[in-house]
What does this fold into?
Amino acid sequence: MSQQYVATDSREGLQVAVTGEFPENAADRVRIARTTTLFTRLTATILGTADQEERRARFRAVETQLEVAEALIAGDGPRVRELMRDTLRQIGISEEQLADAERELRARLAELGHELPDGPLADLFGPPDAPGAPDALDDASDDEPGTPPSPNAPDDEPPDRRSPPGEPPPPGEPPPPGEPPLSAV
It folds into this structure.
């Protein structure tokens, strides 16, 4: 038998209903409720945008992000890469700038003895040997080509400012965002 979850945003009077066969697991049902509530609030916020052109741009941005999320969940790396690159181009980042960022990221990870892990970032850049992919360590050091810089090389970069897991952020830095409260109708 079909079940239904309804979320309402009082600001715009928007109501969204999700109907279907939901899993029996309570945690899954909470996720359905939270996702529906967030979608409803997001849509209502966009609908509250007075300027029609800005409103359409916001809807397009959300549509793209939802497409990226769906492709990530489905494990469709090429689609994730395509959507992310399109998004970056739309905000003015050129392919050359993206290639520079990839080289820098790969070089920094190599300095730490790591490779770019599988997942969203690797999906964005693709494998290092993909056609058009920059050499992972191009211009990364003055040492032998293809090797990370020596440990005695000067480091012009500031130290990592992130707090270790479980520790509060440094003073003046905001804590990581928490999950929004669950609201149901």
About this structure: The chain has five helices and two strands. The helical segments are 26-47, 52-74, 77-90, 95-111, 120-125. The CA atoms of residues 107 and 137 lie 5 Å apart.
